[in-house]
């Protein structure tokens, strides 16, 4: 049923007290005709197909009393797996329902405007926008599957993407997802009456990374995975290595055997997380 909706020309989804139009990019002209006339021309003139480039999904927020934005999706299948290589070891993540996760993520950006922005009482940074979009993705995936399975997939995908490309750091939502996935059970997430209640609770208890921490984690990730000096500076940003190991270990533990995971952490001069210690 979900796949059928994703492949249809268009449909509406709820975004707090508004709605968003979901459009198959292949049916762009017909789809935007469902928008109020005041929104059709700006959307038609925005060259959406060029903006999407190689992306599977994108969102265009709008200013309207009833419509929060338009989400565009491609009707192509996403790759069945995502690979990354670290120290000669291949890490493979099999992707399930990735197009659905992409849709939820784009919906999350619109919920940021309707819910997160008012709760924080300030504009979100780019990385906060992506992290809270993934928080909504987690929320929806848990309510759909009654499990953390798809939420962990999104977590592992963010880690592998940042290993593959330093530009993906802007989407590295792992610190926020790690907090929820390790501090809550699916049942506890479902127990919140609404996404607004859930998000408000997370905002109150989660301490986001400061600008200095963000800058240092980005620099450390670049040094470890995108620099030729990886093994020459094992003490570079040593005070961030323990936490980075904590964020990477669930992915390594889930996708590799213990020997491979330990080998990668050792090669990167990252502390061995307790969950990988021999029993």
Explain what you see:
The chain contains 13 helices and 6 strands. By secondary structure, the protein is an alpha+beta fold. The chain folds into 2 domains: 1-76, no CATH class; 77-276, no CATH class. A hairpin with a 5-residue loop joins β3 (57-61) and β4. It is globular and about 60 Å long. The termini are far apart. The mean pLDDT is 91.
Features:
279 residues, alpha+beta, 4-stranded mixed β-sheet, 13 helices, 6 strands, 55% helix
Structural class label: alpha+beta
Unreliable runs, pLDDT <50, ≥5 residues?
Answer: none
Contiguous helical run count: 13
Number of domains: 2
Instruction: Give the tally of β-strands.
Output: 6
**Main sheet properties:** 4 strands, mixed
Subunit arrangement of the protein: single chain
Q: How far apart, in Å, are the first and last alpha carbons?
A: 44 Å
The topology string of helices and strands comes to: HEEHHHEEEEHHHHHHHHH
Secondary structure: helix percent: 40-55%
Strand content: 5-15%
Q: Which strand order spans the largest sheet, edge to edge or round the barrel? A: 1-2-4-3
Radius of gyration: 20 Å
Principal-axes shape call:
globular
Mean pLDDT: 91
